[in-house]
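Comment thread on ticket #2218

A.B. wrote:
> Attaching the input chain for the structure job we discussed in standup.
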Amino acid sequence: MATEFAQVSVVVPMLDEASGIGATLAALAPLRHGGGEVIVVDGGSADASVEIARPLADLVISSPRGRATQMNAGAAIARGRLLCFVHADTLMSARAVEMLRDVDGWGRFEVRLSGRGALLGVIGWMMSRRSCLTGIATGDQCLFVARELFDTVGGFPEQPLMEDIEVSKRLRRIVWPRCLSAPVVTDSRRWRRRGVVRTILLMWWLRWAYAVGVSPTRLAEWYR
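C.D. wrote:
> Ran it. Output below, let me know if you need it in another format.
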């Protein structure tokens, strides 16, 4: 087996993602073939997610529900010097996977929203530009981080929302993130379901509320 990805571990938190987890994991097949590992952490799926994931991952484990909790559980058993966290509804492009061979520090990829529509394209572009300017990465951007840095900041804070924002703040105090140009595509279902403009306003509101000190628990209630 090739070993160019031998030091890379990808962690995928999952909950009831039977409709898309197969495609997400299939996109990571070149990494596994190159000696990297893919760890799926299930939070108690009631659908066929686990059955679909097993043949497409190196490990499928269970943990208490909660994205931060699940990602920390996967990171705890990962063997790689580089950790990459991929949401179950996000597809890494072949170029993004390839770039994991040589990165260090921490950072994120360029995010695009699935589906057609100029507005969705603009939203993805704005998300990527904002993260470069602020040094804040979101989970949809497939955050990657060197094991040493991840351990230094204590992993993801185990809070029900904004765990990606918080860990980014901690990491950027040490080193500014790398903004890699390779694309990753995240499912736009929540934007379509709630409405694009309404979702934009909701996300802005939640970020502002978090910045002024509203608890992640309260934010999660508003988000739901």
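A.B. wrote:
> Thanks. Noting for the ticket: The two ends are 44 Å apart (CA to CA).
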